[in-house]
């Protein structure tokens, strides 16, 4: 009886209470809401978990109760706790015949489980059954679960039913079936490969929502295989045209924009289809041009479409007019006060710069503003842009800025990215060796643990090989400057391991080469390194090998070697090291010290890291020794194979073993030149010490000269060819002359504006001059920066460019525009539903799935070739489309305006906001939940 | 490193996808989470901690996007509640911002001037509505009217069930008097 009472109360509360939950649950939510720390919250949740564990075990839990427990499980899992003890109850609830319970069960399992969970197998059967249900809401709930829970193995179990549902009477079901198929395609393309034609067909579904959903899978399919979908270009263009002409029902409007999400999807698809395809691109010119004219740039959604247009134009082969439109949209973005739009503008610049490189110059000051903005998001986007527009004339400014920023941030993910970009730019555009080494030092010093090990190897190789020219003098200078910089840095605390490896190696090879530094000075420094980083065995290994080289060079030049006491103790320590590698190095060093000059010289010749080592694999130099031994009665050597001859298995085994061993042991064959795709050989070997054999083909790559501007490859590799051309060329000097000539020009601010010349405004054009007039006072510092970022390498070349771009512009803007665009226009833009006119590809039309729709279309569309009326197809009652739309329209305007209230009539009756909040408050209090006064915002309208 | 690069490539093929939706209050309390890409419970907690740390501390005039672990998170504050969606680097941020707004407008219509409290106590309804808007991380429906229609069809079932329940409760109340 008592139980019945509780149930009665519970049920009554459920029917009365606005929130439909029990007091217990409301108390839980309330206490969590009032908890003051994460620890307190965790305590509350843990006790709730205990309660739920107990309650779920009770026999005969009423279903309604169970439903609430499951919602409570969802709640605790949402708060980051493990609710897996109750998953099985959620699974059971999906089996229930009552849709309410079933729906709760499905909601919970889609939140709890992922597709690889063991419990899925218990749901598949239910899903199968529910997909066949008469009630479309059941089918929808099951399809939601399908999209989340069905994995590659279970796809076949539901696939036939999902395919059947593509033709379901309810559009909601068709739409979800499409999304489910789409998901199958992502999970396992082969499982649905025979069904992709369904996506094409569904593009013509009578419901715009289904058509819109179909764009998702089509986007995927097209991005995988553009060629097979070229025939759809005209259809997509036609759909987009009709959407922009407001042929879809008004309910798809969003902030007065016709179906913007569908427009954006279409633009993405068209960008894929027309990428690098002139004729496909031309089909889009008109609709894109229309979009630029029609889009309302005062709303965010309008700008979202404009941005998508810019992206589209950066992918296709655009007309000059479209480029102009895009540039104009970008300049509007950049001039906006909204950070979001500035960000999009910078992004757009980065895309368009590939097509017309001069576009960034118009916006140089805006770009610099963004670069100096306190918003990290905007700053990083701007760095990305600068990275894309780096050339030899501005590399120093850009990389310096990047490094400053890299030093200032803690976010390792981005630090890694920007460090590798610095390296890439430095390798491609370095104006001088000293600068290059300086930059690399900074990168290693501040992000050494984050950069790829190949970068270190490349740097060592560069220092060792020089620049490919037979200019020993320059090479030696480079090495000396490297040594000097390392000796300065080496005493800094906590240097990254990788950097220390580079330092040790360079000091070992070249520390004493110039004669400037004594062997004891360098070896002292190396001992300091080994001492300070005693836990880093790799660094110690590098240091010991470097010591060995220093001593070897001393011995080879017949100088007396004084091993410093600290070196001596280091060697002794390492002789007993746990690391066999360090031990071996120490023993080798010890042995070397006892050898005479001639022997040492052949072991470790001076500056021979680039020399080939010829390895006599047969050990023929021992022949005499062997002969002697055999003659004096020794047994001749029997090779491994001969020894185990006859036993096949073991032979195989052995030879395999043998193979294994050699691959791990020291490798004697020449290394290949480092390639980015191949994992670094040095790191694969046990000890990544660049032994002299490391570079076997030192001077080979230079013969192939690749262009410097080719920057697509993002892989980290040293482009010696480019570097070689770059360095020693006058570009470096001319850029310094430019920067030295900048200050006087920037100083007399008046003349800059009056003559329209000056540094910052050298290539003046309309958009930028308006920007300048808006901001008459420009920090000369900024102008200098602008000049160094955007200006050419010298003033003369800049004026050259100015005149050339000046000559180019009018041609683009006025002369070409009327001449070319109309010529391209006459290509008829076919309608989506205008299938009677084969557009160029008549053979495709025969198999075109759209043909199937012809019968359907007859009633509403005329095949006059003009614009077909899609409205008749989409609107539910074609006779009075205007009437149905008015109500929707008013709803929309209310949402965007703040004048709500009127449309609430149609909703469940709700009063004005303040009253409503009071009511809610009262209700909550009634329920025993006292909202804390400290947090009145809980009652604040989100859209208020 | 190279690993990051390959994982970026992995997502490249899944362009236009929302990886997760997150609703966090000004105080850092989680109001709703929906994960469309696989994350373990541990990763989820870490993501929430990390992101709310960054987003809640951002100034009001800044971009509504942050770059985060090679992805982008688009967020918008409504009253004291932050709506966040994680998307791919190459996605259209402005569009996602509007998808968030679209969701808020639908919630507003459903609850009638939605406030945070509505979502606290009716978070499961917020989930149902989200499920009609996004499926597998894709926007499945862009018409508010269509979403409203199916949600109200579902609610009518709920109402019917409630009436049934209250009549039963009356009977029980009578019986236990």
From TrEMBL, chain A:
Alphabetic keyword roster: Golgi apparatus, Membrane, Protein transport, Transport
Ranges of Low complexity composition bias in the record: 730-747, 884-899
Biased composition (Polar residues): 900-912
Subcellular location(s) per record: Endomembrane system
Molecular function per GO: cargo adaptor activity
Gene source species: Brassica napus
Function: Subunit of novel type of clathrin- or non-clathrin-associated protein coat involved in targeting proteins from the trans-Golgi network (TGN) to the endosomal-lysosomal system.
GO biological process: intracellular protein transport
Keyword Secreted found: no
Region annotation Disordered: where it falls in the sequence: 690-916, 925-944
One cellular component (GO) term of this entry: endomembrane system
InterPro entries listed in its UniProt record: Adaptor_Complx_Large_Subunit, AP4_complex_esu, ARM-like, ARM-type_fold, Clathrin/coatomer_adapt-like_N
Domain Clathrin/coatomer adaptor adaptin-like N-terminal: 60-594
Protein name: AP-4 complex subunit epsilon
Self-association state and partner proteins as the record states: Adaptor protein complex 4 (AP-4) is a heterotetramer composed of two large adaptins, a medium adaptin and a small adaptin.
Gene: BnaA09g28610D
Residue stretches of biased makeup (Basic and acidic residues): 709-724, 769-784
Homology family: Belongs to the adaptor complexes large subunit family.
Tagged with keyword Ribosomal protein: no
UniProtKB/TrEMBL annotation, chain B:
SUPFAM superfamilies found in the cross-reference section: SNARE-like
Keyword Hydrolase: no
Record key words, sorted: Cytoplasmic vesicle, Golgi apparatus, Membrane, Protein transport, Transport
GO terms under cellular component: AP-1 adaptor complex; cytosol
InterPro entries, alphabetized: AP1_sigma, AP_complex_ssu, AP_mu_sigma_su, Clathrin_sm-chain_CS, Longin-like_dom_sf
Compartments reported by the entry: Cytoplasmic vesicle, Clathrin-coated vesicle membrane; Golgi apparatus
Membrane topology: Peripheral membrane protein
Primary location class: membrane
GO term, biological process aspect, one: vesicle-mediated transport
Pfam families: Clat_adaptor_s (PF01217)
MF annotations from Gene Ontology: clathrin adaptor activity
Entry keyword Protein transport: yes
AP complex mu/sigma subunit domain boundaries: 17-156
Role: Subunit of clathrin-associated adaptor protein complex 1 that plays a role in protein sorting at the trans-Golgi network and early endosomes (TGN/EE). The AP complexes mediate the recruitment of clathrin to membranes and the recognition of sorting signals within the cytosolic tails of transmembrane cargo molecules.
Family to which this protein belongs: Belongs to the adaptor complexes small subunit family.
Subunit-level organization: Adaptor protein complex 1 (AP-1) is a heterotetramer composed of two large adaptins (gamma-type subunit and beta-type subunit), a medium adaptin (mu-type subunit) and a small adaptin (sigma-type subunit).
Name this protein carries in UniProt: AP complex subunit sigma
Biological classification of the source: Eukaryota, Viridiplantae, Streptophyta, Embryophyta, Tracheophyta
């Amino acid at each position: 009886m008592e139980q019945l009472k509780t149930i009665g109360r519970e049920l009554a509360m459920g029917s009365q209470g606005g929130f439909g939950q029990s007091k217990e649950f409301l108390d839980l939510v309330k206490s969590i809401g009032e908890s003051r720390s994460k620890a307190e919250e965790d305590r509350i949740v843990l006790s709730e978990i205990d309660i739920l564990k107990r309650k779920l075990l009770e026999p005969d839990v009423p279903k309604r109760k169970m439903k609430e427990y499951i919602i409570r499980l969802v709640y605790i899992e949402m708060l980051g706790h493990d609710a897996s003890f109750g998953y099985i109850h959620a699974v059971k609830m999906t089996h229930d015949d009552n849709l309410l319970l079933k729906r709760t069960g499905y909601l919970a399992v889609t939140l709890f489980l992922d597709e690889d969970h063991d419990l899925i197998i218990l749901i598949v059967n239910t899903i199968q059954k529910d997909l066949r249900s008469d009630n479309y809401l059941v089918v929808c709930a099951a399809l939601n679960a399908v999209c989340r829970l069905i994995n590659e193995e279970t796809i076949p179990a539901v696939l036939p039913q999902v395919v059947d549902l593509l033709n379901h009477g309810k559009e909601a079901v068709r739409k979800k079936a499409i999304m489910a198929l789409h998901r199958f395609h992502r999970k396992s393309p082969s499982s649905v490969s025979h069904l992709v034609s369904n996506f094409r067909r569904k593009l013509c579904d009578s419901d715009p929502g289904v058509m819109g959903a179909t764009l998702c899978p089509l986007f995927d399919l097209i991005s995988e295989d553009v060629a097979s979908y070229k025939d759809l270009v005209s259809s997509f263009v036609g759909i987009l045209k009709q959407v922009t002409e407001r042929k879809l029902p008004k309910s798809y409007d969003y902030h007065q924009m016709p179906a913007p999400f569908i427009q954006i999807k279409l633009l993405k698809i068209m960008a894929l289809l027309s990428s690098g395809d002139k004729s496909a691109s031309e089909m889009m010119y008109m609709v894109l041009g229309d979009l630029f004219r029609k889009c309302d740039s005062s709303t965010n959604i309008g700008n979202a479409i404009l941005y998508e247009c810019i992206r589209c134009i950066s992918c296709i082969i655009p007309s000059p007019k479209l480029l102009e439109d895009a540039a104009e949209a970008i300049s509007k973005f950049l001039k906006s006060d909204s950070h979001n739009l500035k960000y999009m503008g910078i992004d757009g610049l980065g895309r368009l710069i590939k097509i017309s490189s001069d576009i960034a110059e118009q916006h140089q000051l805006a770009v610099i503003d963004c670069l100096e903005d306190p918003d990290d998001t905007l700053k990083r986007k701007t760095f990305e842009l600068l990275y894309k527009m780096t050339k030899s004339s501005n590399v120093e400014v850009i990389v310096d800025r990047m490094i400053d920023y890299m030093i200032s941030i803690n976010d390792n993910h981005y630090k890694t990215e920007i460090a590798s970009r610095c390296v890439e730019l430095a390798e491609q555009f370095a104006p001088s060796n000293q600068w290059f080494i300086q930059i690399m030092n900074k990168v290693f010093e501040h992000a050494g643990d984050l950069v790829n090990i190949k970068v270190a190897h490349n740097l060592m190789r560069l220092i060792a090989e020089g620049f490919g020219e037979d200019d020993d003098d320059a090479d030696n200078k480079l090495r000396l400057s490297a040594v000097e910089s390392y000796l300065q840095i080496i005493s800094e605390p906590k240097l990254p391991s990788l950097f220390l490896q580079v330092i040790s190696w360079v000091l070992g090879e070249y520390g004493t080469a110039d004669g400037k530094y004594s062997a004891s000075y360098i070896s002292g420094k190396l001992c300091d390194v080994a001492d300070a980083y005693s836990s880093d065995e790799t660094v110690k290994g590098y240091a010991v090998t470097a010591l060995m080289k220093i001593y070897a060079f001393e011995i080879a030049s017949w100088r007396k070697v004084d091993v410093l006491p600290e070196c001596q103790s280091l060697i002794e320590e390492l002789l007993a090291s746990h690391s066999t590698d360090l031990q071996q190095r120490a023993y080798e060093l010890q042995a070397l010290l006892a050898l005479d000059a001639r022997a040492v010289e052949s072991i470790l010749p001076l500056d021979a890291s680039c020399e080939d080592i010829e390895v006599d694999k047969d050990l023929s130099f021992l022949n005499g020794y062997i002969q002697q031994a055999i003659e004096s009665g020794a047994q001749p050597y029997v090779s491994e194979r001969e020894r185990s001859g006859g036993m096949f298995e073991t032979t195989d085994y052995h030879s395999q073993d043998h193979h294994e061993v050699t691959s791990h042991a020291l490798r004697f064959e020449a290394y290949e030149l480092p390639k980015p795709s191949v994992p670094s050989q040095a790191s694969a070997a046990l000890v990544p010490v660049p032994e002299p054999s490391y570079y076997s083909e030192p001077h080979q790559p230079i013969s192939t000269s690749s262009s410097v501007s080719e920057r697509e490859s993002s892989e980290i590799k040293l482009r010696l060819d480019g570097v070689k051309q770059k360095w020693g060329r006058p570009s470096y000097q001319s850029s310094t002359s430019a920067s030295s000539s900048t200050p006087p020009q920037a100083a007399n601010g008046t003349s800059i504006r009056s003559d329209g010349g000056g540094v910052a405004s050298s290539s003046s054009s309309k958009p930028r001059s308006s920007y300048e007039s808006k901001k008459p006072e420009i920090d000369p510092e900024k102008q200098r920066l602008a000049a160094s970022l955007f200006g050419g390498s010298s003033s003369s070349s800049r004026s050259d460019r100015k005149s050339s771009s000046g000559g180019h512009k009018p041609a683009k803007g006025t002369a070409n525009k009327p001449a070319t665009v109309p010529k391209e226009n006459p290509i008829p833009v076919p309608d989506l539903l205008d299938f009677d006119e084969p557009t160029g590809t008549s053979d495709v039309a025969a198999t075109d799935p759209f043909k199937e729709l012809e019968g359907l279309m007859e009633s509403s569309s005329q095949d006059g070739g003009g614009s077909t009326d899609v409205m008749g197809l989409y609107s539910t009652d074609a006779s009075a489309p205007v009437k149905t739309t008015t109500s929707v329209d008013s709803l929309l305007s209310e949402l965007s305006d703040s004048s709500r209230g009127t449309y609430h009539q149609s909703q469940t009756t709700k009063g004005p906001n303040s009253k409503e909040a009071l009511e809610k408050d009262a209700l909550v209090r009634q329920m025993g939940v006292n909202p804390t006064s400290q947090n009145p915002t809980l009652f604040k309208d989100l859209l208020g | 490193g190279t690993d990051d690069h390959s994982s970026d490539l992995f997502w490249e093929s899944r362009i236009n996808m929302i990886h997760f939706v997150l609703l966090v209050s000004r105080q850092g309390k989680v109001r709703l989470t929906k994960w469309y890409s696989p994350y373990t419970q541990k990763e989820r907690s870490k993501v929430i901690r990390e992101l709310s740390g960054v987003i809640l501390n951002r100034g009001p005039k800044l971009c509504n996007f942050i770059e985060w672990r090679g992805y982008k998170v688009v967020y918008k504050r409504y009253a004291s509640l932050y709506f966040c969606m994680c998307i791919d680097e190459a996605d259209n941020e402005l569009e996602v911002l509007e998808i968030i707004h679209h969701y808020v407008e639908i919630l507003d219509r459903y609850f009638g001037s939605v406030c945070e409290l509505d979502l606290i106590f009716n978070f499961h309804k917020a989930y149902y509505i989200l499920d009609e808007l996004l499926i597998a991380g894709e926007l499945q429906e862009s018409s508010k009217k269509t979403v409203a229609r199916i949600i109200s069809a579902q609610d009518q079932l709920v109402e019917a069930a409630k009436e049934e329940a209250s009549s039963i409760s009356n009977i029980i109340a009578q019986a236990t008097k």
